Amino acid sequence: MDFLNSQLTRKNHLKCHKKRLNQDQVRLLEISFCSNNKLDSDRKSQLAQELGLPPRQVAIWYQNKRARWKSQSLEVDYNSLQKRLDSALDDNEKLKLEVERLRKELNKTQEMLLGFSTTTNYSSISSSCDEVGSTSCLQLHDHQSKHNHLDKELYACLIGEEGQFGTHNGHNFFASSLS
Q1: DSSP label of 39
Q2: Which of 3, 61, 84, 94 has the smallest count of CB within 10 Å of its CB?
Q3: Half-sphere exposure of 134 (CA within 13 A, CB side)
Q4: Integer Cα distance of 171 and 160 in angstroms
């Protein structure tokens, strides 16, 4: 019981001697903290003497101030990162919508190309060739074959040889529009 009483007496004794800082003392400590947030023993003694405080109280004030300062800077950093994340998420949504729009446009273009390549003059080839192996029929067939080859090349440019949109022979035709 004596130990408990001595501890309570000690706490009461510390509370009685601990002074609350006035505005001038806080202002001077703040100015000192702004110039250097670490406190060496010489600076601690000098501030304690100027303020009329025990050096331990100055050291504790600095310690508490550093903790508050760190918490505030973490909060500012968190808010900044949160804004950047929100902006990135907005950009991501816009890009998803753009990708969807481009996919629809690609599908329409693919349908047009497929429709174009299947309807291009095949009926005129068969109707204009009365004789199998005629010279005019072979010339028309050669022309159609070259045209069909061009259609395939155009399709390959748009779709890509491996089904990859926008790349052909290692070249990405849409790289500049995506960056």
Answers
A1: -
A2: 3
A3: 11
A4: 10
Long-range residue pairs from 69-77, CB within 8 A, at least 24 positions apart, any chain: 69/33, 69/37
Decide: helix, strand or coil at residue 5: helix
Percent of the chain with pLDDT over 90: 44
Give the helix ranges, DSSP H, for 18-134: 23-35, 41-51, 55-119, 122-128
- For residue 39, what are the CA distances in angstroms to 34, 50, 74? 11, 15, 22
Tokens, residue 91: 């950009």
Nearest to 21 by CA among 42, 41, 46, 50: 50
With CA atoms as reference, report the closest residue to 69 among 24, 34, 45: 34
Lowest mean pLDDT among 11-20, 23-32, 65-74: 11-20
What local confidence, expressed as pLDDT, does residue 116 receive? 77
Band (pLDDT 50/70/90 cuts) for residue 61 is very high
Give the whole-angstrom CA distance, residue 113 versus residue 154. Answer: 9
Token pair 């007496």 is found at 9
What tokens does 170 get? 């290692």
> In the predicted model, what is the mean pLDDT of residues 41-52?
92
Torsional sign, CA 123, 129, 131, 132: negative
Residue with tokens 């022979």: 169
> Is residue 126 pLDDT above 90, yes or no?
no
